[in-house]
Amino acid sequence: MSEANLKSYPGSDITITFEGGRCLHFAECVRGLPEVFDVSARPWITPDNAGAAALAAVVERCPSGALQYTRNDGGVDETPPDPTVVTVNERGQILLHGNLTLTGPGSQPHPEHRMTLCACGRSAKRPFCDNACRSS
Ligand code: SF4
Ligand code: FES
Q1: Residues contacting 60, CB < 8 A, separation 6+
Q2: In whole angstroms, what is the distance from residue 32 CA to residue 11 CA?
Q3: What is the pLDDT of residue 1?
Q4: Which ligand 2 atom sits closest to the C-alpha of 132?
Q5: Which run of H or E residues covers position 94?
Q6: 52, exposed or middle or buried, with CB in 10 Å at 0-12, 13-18, 19+?
Q7: 58 Cα nearest atom in ligand 1
Q8: What residue ranges line ligand 2, CB within 6 angstroms?
Q9: Ligand nearest the Cα atom of residue 129
Q10: What is the DSSP string of 44-77?
Q11: How many CB atoms lie within 10 A of CB 115?
Q12: Contact 84/115 with Cβ under 8 angstroms?
């Protein structure tokens, strides 16, 4: 995770972080909790507009890993599937969901649970997909 590109949105029960360079506009967030994720508002994430558990559940559906959360209320942290689930969607993107440690170029300093990797070789952010595949 690029710390320079990471923004934090603290709430009383849960803090959300957003790494804009990783967002692939799957829109799970704005569809899931529009009262929290509103791209027309500033800040665009308002964690206190929903319960922590509901918000955590929506963040866990962010396939790119752009959204992460930390519970401030003692609630359970994200528990990824084990074994890891690998999905190749119709665009050829590789969606990973599990206990993930990425090594090599673009490696992440901390283990993560959700990533979308480039399979077509055209992403400028490899190993991550950057939606260059959208224009094909
Ligand atoms: S769910 Fe994740 S990848 Fe999709 S729009 Fe929201 S932040 Fe971006
Ligand atoms: S799979 Fe999306 S840019 Fe390569």
Answers
A1: 78, 113, 114
A2: 18
A3: 47
A4: 3
A5: strand 94-100
A6: buried
A7: 1
A8: 92-93, 118-120, 122-123, 129-133
A9: 2
A10: SB-GGGS-HHHHHHHHTT-TTS-EEEEESSSPPP
A11: 20
A12: no
CA-wise closest residue to 46 among 34, 63, 54, 57: 34
Going from the Cα of 59 to the center of ligand 2, the distance in angstroms, rounded, reads 22
pLDDT attached to residue 110:
78
* Mean pLDDT for back-to-back runs of 10 residues, the chain (136 residues): 78 97 94 98 98 98 97 97 97 96 79 94 94 86
* Side chain identity, residue 11: G
Are 129 and 118 contacting, i.e. CB atoms less than 8 angstroms apart?
A: yes
Q: What are phi and psi of 83, to 5 degrees?
A: -75, 165
Architecture of domain 3-71 in this structure: 2-Layer Sandwich (3.30)
Tokens representing residue 129 in the block: 């997909």
Of ligand 2's atoms, which has the minimum distance to the CA of residue 92?
1
- The b-or-e profile of 3-39 (16+ CB within 10 A means b, else e) is eeeeeebebebbbbbbbeebbbebebbeebbeebbbe
pTM: 0.92
Question: Closest-lying ligand to the alpha carbon of 90?
Answer: 2
What residue spans in the chain does CATH classification 3.30.70 cover? 3-71
